[in-house]
Design brief:
Radius of gyration: 23 Å
Helix content: 25-40%
Number of domains: 2
Structural class: alpha+beta
Number of strands: 25
CATH superfamily of the largest domain: Naphthalene 1,2-dioxygenase Alpha Subunit, Chain A, domain 1
CATH topology of the largest domain: Naphthalene 1,2-dioxygenase Alpha Subunit, Chain A, domain 1
Number of helices: 12
Distance between the termini: 13 Å
Shape: globular
Largest sheet: 10 strands, antiparallel
Length: 431
Amino acid sequence: MTIAVDLRNFVQPDRVHRDLYEDPQIFEMEMERLFRRAWTYAGHVSQVPKIGDFLCTTIGTQPLVMTRHTDGKVYVLHNRCGHRGVKVINTEQGNAKLLRCMFHGWTFRANGELAGLTQPEGYPPDFNPDPVACGMPKVARMEIYHGFVFVSLSADGPDFKDYFGGVLSSLDDLIAYAPEGEVEITGGLLRYGYPGNWKFQADNSCDMYHVVYSHESSRKGNTQYIRRPGDTGGIPFFDKSNKVVTFDASGLWAFENGHGWEGAVVQSHENTSKWYQEYEARLEKQHGKERTRQILTRKRHNTIFYPNLVIQDLNMHVRLIRPHRVDLTEILIYPIKLKGAPEEMFIESIRMLNTTNSAASMTQADDVEAFIRGHAGLRTKDANPWVLIARGDGTETPDPAYERGYRTFGSSELLLRKQYQSWLNLMTHGA
């Protein structure tokens, strides 16, 4: 599709135009350009552990299905019948020997190849459909990193490691938390939606500026509620001078293609519960005391792999951003299980996810309310059309520890500026 405006006019170094959140035409261009060209998260291999398993997902608004074929490999396919283009799998997750289209009964193997068509006598005698060309197409590119499956719907563009760069260290560190060196996505999911643009959630994923204001009701005195049994205290908001320095001191890291993370909050370093002590002992048995101490001295709180994946380090989970319309977004929350860690640790993690990230939780509900109000406020056309993202501009410095990484103070909006530069690059590529 085409639009009669220059998108470069919508992004300035310290602000973006309201239409990026409200214009249906721009939303459709994002689905065609940004979500098609970027590397995006599709799922985790542990979600399809057995041959015949499948998991439906979307990239932008395009339906996909992740499968495990008889060769043991994981595939990501366009969820589209090679006959009349109908969506083949409508059940979100399951197991099947063949994937069958409900419209005319065509069947497909888990690698996407056509397995059979119904009533073949009705076709011309020389009709011999190619099993690949008439199958469910594979995505253009796919990479698996520590079990996390990323795809690009375009055959062109930066390669996987070039696109993500130093932010992949977040997954390296995540895997190190597991005594057996692997993680699983299991334990069910939380799902919520809001009437607003997908970028509200992406913008907020590593925003430490809003915490003491949006989540004011979640604190008692100067600290937030204790997030895990055994933690010695909640997250402190202010210092004695009543300035928001707790999060500022933690830092924020940003990368050229819009990825980044918040520094770890103070609370994430210690825990006195029995199951946590057992967890530490298992890590020490695997790595020794010094390396275990390095692993448990966490570096991050939330990490965003722009545009659709957020991973939280403190209460480990995957947050998947699914755009539906310019004014409708769905969010899926999946618990992360550390293989080899005590089972009680995972049970407590799920319990706390219900406290913090369910639709009626103590903190996520505040964020959703902000997204709803953001959508309502930006619909006002007779006011300043710009959304400011200037906080901390010019304070960033390169961090040589991470490839193309920059560091600044925790409540800076540096990461938003990187995200919208990436947005502009992807949206105007080749234009």
